[in-house]
UniProtKB/TrEMBL annotation:
InterPro entries: DHS-like_NAD/FAD-binding_dom (IPR029035), NAD-dep_sirtuin_deacylases (IPR050134), Sirtuin (IPR003000), Sirtuin_cat_small_dom_sf (IPR026591), Sirtuin_class_III (IPR027546), Ssirtuin_cat_dom (IPR026590). Belongs to the sirtuin family. Class I subfamily. SUPFAM superfamilies: DHS-like NAD/FAD-binding domain (SSF52467). GO terms for cellular component: nucleus. This is Deacetylase sirtuin-type domain-containing protein. One of its GO terms (molecular function) is NAD+ binding. Residues 1-293 form the Deacetylase sirtuin-type domain. Keywords: NAD, Transferase.
Amino acid sequence: MSSPKTDVDEFRKILNGANRILALCGAGLSVASGLPTFRGAGGLWREFESTSLATPEAFEDDPGLVWLFYAWRRHLALKAKPNAGHYALAELAKKKENFLCLTQNVDGLSPRAGHPESAIRMLHGNLLDITCYNKCGYAERNATRDPVCPSLAAAAEDYPPGQLSPLLDPSVDLATIKPEDLPQCPDCKRRGKTSLLRPGVVWFGESLPDGMLLEVDNWLYKDPVDVMLVIGTSAAVYPAAGYTNKAKRRGAVVAVINPDPQAKSGLDGKDFFFQGGADEFLPKLFEDVIGKLKIPDTAPLTEA
Ligand code: APR
């Protein structure tokens, strides 16, 4: 198989002429905003692999620990600002009518960059949503309170640069948080039951939000796809990772943007590989469509 192309000008022309464009984004898109990835160098939280805390079993076993991990990710996401990569994608969505962005990110930075809601699907949910663990239907959308509750206050503390927070230091023991000190579902309580609340994200072994997969498949199979952008993802988690090959079978030229050279595996001579950060490459790659990117000073948080 011949190697993917790396010519920015050639890709710009293809994108400019493209009608239907699909993007799959992952944690790498938010690295330039200071948020950690799930795998590789950024994937360790204390002594735990981040992915090992993202399961219903981990929550059943120690809800306080899993909540602390997510409360810390919430705090980071609330403090973070969208970067040039988020803004470039949001602008592309405003210029290209048939562009759909599938993001695995739960940090909400794409919506905060102004990415139109109709042109993005948050496949793995939203870190700021809080839902009932027993699925009674209770949900708080875009809840920005930080800390989520007093027992999770440690996750909302900031330390000066260079000073490791005790929460992140595996040599400092964590106090066990009792389930009764975690957020409880008010609707279940009204019905005389008890249920914990949980972060509104999709954990391993859980289904993606209702109807979303069908909607994405409907988009995918409606017409051929011209370009598939694969941005900052290790493409290790399905069904998300499967969309690249589906789009390729629908005729798409695939462009992978990732600093890791391993991310180009599976690409052929019709495809493109841009080795580097999404914040650096996306504004350049989209410039013929979106012009020179302007980054606004503020990216407001909105509480629903
Ligand atoms: N720009 C672009 N890509 C980057 C950057 C950057 N600045 N920095 C790192 N990357 C790349 C890494 O090389 C890696 O390929 O981002 C990718 C991040 O991979 P993962 O940590 O595996 O994140 P992701 O692919 O989003 O994980 C998928 O796994 O645990 C679950 O639900 C979680 O949504 C997540 C899913």
